[in-house]
């Protein structure tokens, strides 16, 4: 319950404005992509028809100005700016225009039945060899061009990790994995946020490993304009599920083995990673499909976009940028410009 105390000096107009501001802030904000703005309604309508023929959910809004009416041609409805931004990038060159994301206004109610929201984005240049689901997780197995020759990427609660698993004994599992040093959505974060995350992560590892921050910093992997990371080693007790971080770090300029980089050890215990790989949580074999189907919709790749079709109504539209890789419930994963893009659809 909200109580507003109105003093005698507060006018009725001010009170109305307070209510308007409150309810405006409580509404969900949508974004769209503006393709072009012209003074000719006829020309804009022709362009709108061309976009609709290509599968884009296009619409036009009219805006009065001092110089007369302007007709803005727009496409789609998105739950956050990130989804609209990628869509606008993928539309570059269509109609010889320069699409840009905009706050939405005047979107037709029946334009799209589902809005896309970007919830995670990760740089992956490698070849996918397996995708499967396990309870609340999506498991993506890739043939890597980087540190691991083959690795599993686990998406759980939209957190992303890569690892190699090595079977040591019947009851112990060694896991070689990457530890990010920037936040998960680092392309959207400021330098200050990245630095704070980096310092916090390094501080935690100093306490867990018992070595200096300088020693840790010497072992980080970082390519140009890419997220820096460390390679760590865990020991998992398969009976108790206890996880122990071992005192070892991957050497950035080392010989790459099938288990990842060679390791620097910081105590007397050195474990050679020569046992066979443990085929756990690696995902089923992945075969690209023309269509991916859920209970309510069908997703398919169309050039730079993913098309969605609602099964009941047969409504189709290009919903997000990228070629579809995975569809499950309200989750959609695409690949766009060397990145995995994870969307929710609501």
Structural overview:
The protein is of the alpha+beta class. The model is unreliable at 1-27 and 279-283 (pLDDT under 50). The protein contains five helices and 22 strands. 27% of the residues are buried. It folds into three domains: 31-112, Alpha-Beta Plaits (2-Layer Sandwich), CATH 3.30.70; 123-265, no CATH class; 288-345, no CATH class. The chain has helices spanning 12-26, 41-53, 81-90, 191-209, 213-217, and strands at residues 31-38, 58-65, 68-78, 100-103, 116-123, 127-134, 137-143, 150-156, 159-167, 172-180, 229-237, 243-250, 256-257, 260-261, 263-265, 291-293, 297-302, 305-310, 316-321, 323-328, 331-336, 339-345.
* Parts with pLDDT < 50 across at least 5 consecutive residues: 1-27, 279-283
Class from helix and strand fractions = alpha+beta
Biggest sheet features: 8 strands, antiparallel
Shape: elongated
Characteristic key phrases:
346 residues, alpha+beta, Alpha-Beta Plaits, 3 domains, eight-stranded antiparallel beta sheet, four-stranded antiparallel beta sheet, 5 helices, 22 strands, 41% strand, elongated
């Amino acid at each position: 319950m909200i109580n507003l105390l109105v003093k005698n000096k507060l006018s009725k107009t001010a009170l109305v404005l307070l209510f308007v501001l409150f309810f405006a802030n409580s509404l969900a904000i949508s974004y769209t992509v503006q393709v072009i703005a012209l003074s000719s309604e006829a020309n804009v309508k022709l362009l709108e028809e061309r976009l609709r023929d290509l599968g884009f959910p296009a619409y036009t809004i009219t805006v009065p100005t001092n110089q007369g009416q302007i007709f803005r041609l727009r496409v789609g409805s998105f739950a956050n700016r990130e989804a609209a931004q990628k869509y606008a990038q993928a539309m570059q060159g269509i109609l010889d225009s320069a699409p840009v994301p905009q706050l939405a206004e005047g979107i037709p109610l029946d334009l799209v039945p589902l809005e896309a929201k970007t919830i995670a984005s990760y740089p992956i240049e490698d070849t996918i060899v397996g995708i499967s689901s396990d309870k609340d997780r999506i498991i993506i197995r890739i043939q890597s061009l980087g540190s691991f020759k083959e690795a599993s990427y686990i998406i759980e609660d939209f957190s992303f990790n890569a690892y190699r698993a090595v079977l040591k004994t019947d009851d112990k599992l060694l896991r070689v994995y990457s530890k990010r040093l920037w936040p998960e959505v680092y392309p959207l974060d400021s330098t200050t946020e990245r630095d704070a995350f980096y310092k916090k992560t390094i501080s935690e590892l100093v306490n867990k490993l018992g070595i200096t921050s300088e020693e840790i910093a010497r072992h980080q992997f970082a390519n140009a304009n890419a997220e820096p990371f460390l390679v760590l080693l865990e020991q998992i007790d398969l009976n108790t599920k206890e996880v122990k971080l071992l005192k070892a770090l991957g050497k950035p300029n080392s010989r790459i083995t099938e288990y990842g980089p060679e390791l620097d050890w910081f105590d007397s215990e050195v474990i050679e990673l020569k046992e066979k790989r443990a085929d756990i949580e690696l995902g089923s074999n992945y075969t690209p499909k023309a269509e991916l189907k859920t209970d309510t919709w069908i997703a398919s790749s169309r050039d730079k976009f993913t098309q969605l079709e609602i099964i009941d109504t047969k409504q189709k539209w290009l919903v997000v940028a990228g070629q579809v890789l995975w569809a499950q419930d309200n989750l959609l994963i695409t690949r766009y410009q060397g990145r995995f893009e994870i969307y929710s659809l609501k």
